[in-house]
Write a structure and sequence with these properties.
By secondary structure, the protein is α+β, with helices and mostly antiparallel strands. Helix content is 15%, strand content 24%. It has 1 helix and 5 strands. It has one helix at 26-35; strands spanning 2-5, 9-11, 14-16, 21-23, 38-40. The protein has a 3-stranded antiparallel beta sheet, covered by helices on one side. The protein has a two-stranded antiparallel ribbon with strand order 2-3. The radius of gyration is 27 Å and the shape is rod-shaped.
Length: 66
């Protein structure tokens, strides 16, 4: 399970700062969330840029010279 740490955390596996994403098993994740050291990580919605469609204009014909 992926969690986001709210405080710094260090242990035998390494050290992480507040705000880091941490991958661990479900039991460890639940205990860190219950203790207030982490929150469940939610995947952010990805917004994609879309090419804007240009506005369609009516064709204007050329006038002949008199």
């Amino acid at each position: 399970m992926k969690i986001k740490l709210t405080t710094s955390l260090s242990g035998a596996n390494g050290a992480w700062s507040a705000g880091d994403e941490y991958e661990c098993n479900d039991g460890e994740a639940r205990s860190l969330i219950a203790a207030g050291y982490a929150v469940a990580f939610a995947n952010p919605k990805i917004e994609r840029a879309v090419k804007a469609v240009p506005e369609q204009r009516a064709a204007v014909g050329k006038r002949a010279a008199p």
